[in-house]
């Protein structure tokens, strides 16, 4: 199997505390593959969730790419790999702390992924960039939008966003703060695939680790016009299960 191109910030953040260790924006692997992407009609970036090491990140991109191929989407699919395998995330007693650190790191990565989008669009302004995020990946996407929204020239820079099992809160698409940012930065649409049967989001909601996850019951109040949601029934919270129930793209 050919290697999976990815934008990576592995080793940039402390897995125990979320502290920033390196000030670099990102590195590309393999770099020459990204050179070849310049001028592509489209580019889709897959952003994984919590508890994914580098191998896990690669596996998620492969899953996304294979599913999109089945849906007749043949444009390049790459990954965004970040420090989400926070210390103790697999142990119940450390789950809350690990999730909190994961959220800190995910928020900080908005700057990293935002910079990549800006940098890539300079030589390739016509490329439509789509972001797919699973679970905590939704936080990376939201923070990326926040970063991009600081500059007026970035309005409409992202073609579309697709969320699966999103751990950001249910008020985001209708909130004064984020609603406007999403409406400005996303050109076409934001599609949220939500599942009331998602056991991990239900657990996080019950424990009050995430207050009303967007991926559990969808949005509350009146969301922005570019926001759409789809009720899906994945087997469980894993991205593999969400990929299986994805039936249209883009």
From TrEMBL:
<protein>
    <recommendedName>
        <fullName>DUF726 domain-containing protein</fullName>
    </recommendedName>
</protein>
<keyword id="KW-0472">Membrane</keyword>
<dbReference type="InterPro" id="IPR029058">
    <property type="entry name" value="AB_hydrolase_fold"/>
</dbReference>
<keyword id="KW-0812">Transmembrane</keyword>
<keyword id="KW-1133">Transmembrane helix</keyword>
<dbReference type="Pfam" id="PF05277">
    <property type="entry name" value="DUF726"/>
</dbReference>
<dbReference type="InterPro" id="IPR007941">
    <property type="entry name" value="DUF726"/>
</dbReference>
<dbReference type="GO" id="GO:0016020">
    <property type="term" value="C:membrane"/>
</dbReference>
